[in-house]
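Let's study a protein:

___
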Amino acid sequence: MTITDCRTGDIINVAKYDYDDLTGLNRIEHETVDSFVVETQKMVFGSMSNFQHVHTELYIGDGLVFSVEPPKPLIRPLNRTGHERYDVYRWKYFEDYMIPDMARAVNQIVSYDKPYDVGQLLDTLLCTVMGYPFESIVRPFDFGKHCTVCSAGVATVFNKIRKVHGVPRMFTVLNRDEWSKDFIAKYEKDGGYWRIERTFPACFSNTLKFDGEIQCVGWMI
C-alpha cells in the first residue's frame, strides 16, 4: 500500500517509530512516551494482542496527516523514512460527505495550540492499574480540557463527526468473547462506553475486541 492508496479519513497507526532524526530531550521524550504506551496497552489488551503501536495519525488528504505529538497537535506531511511500519485502518461509518466536518474538527483542535498531554498518559496508566482503562475515574495529572494525546485526538475528531451525523460512538460495543466476564460487568456498570480520553492506539488495531467498526485496509513498510 502506498500513500496514494490512503483515503481521506483513514487512521494510521505507527508500529515502529524512527528516532534517528531526534536528539536530546526531544528523543528522550518520544522514547519514554512510546515505551509507556506499549506497556500500558499490553496490560489492557493482553500479550497476544496488537499492543505494539505507539502513535495514531489521521490522514486528511493530499499527503497530509493530523497528528497530536510532542510538543503539540499539528498538520504535517505523512513522513515515512523506511524504518517504520504504518498500519492503515478505516472507520466503517466514515463517508466522503463527512470530510468537511472532519476538517473543521481537525482545525479546531490545532487552533487550540495546546501542548501534548503527558499528564493524560499518567492518568490512563493510573486508571488502568485500578482496573478502569476505559474510564476517567481519576484525573490528577490531566493538563486540561483542550490538551490531548495522539489516539484520543483522532477519536475526538470522529466523535465530533458522530454528533453531527448521528452514527454510533466508537468502541462502545465489546466483543464478549474477547474480554473477561468481570471486565464486561465493570464496563457495563460504569456507563457502557469507552471514554474518548482513554483511547489507545491499540483500540484502533484490535478491532476484534469491539464490534468490527474499525477495519484494517493495508499497511506501508
Observations:
- The chain has a mean pLDDT of 89.
- Residues 24-45 form the longest helix (22 residues).
- Residues 64 and 79 are 9 Å apart (CA to CA).
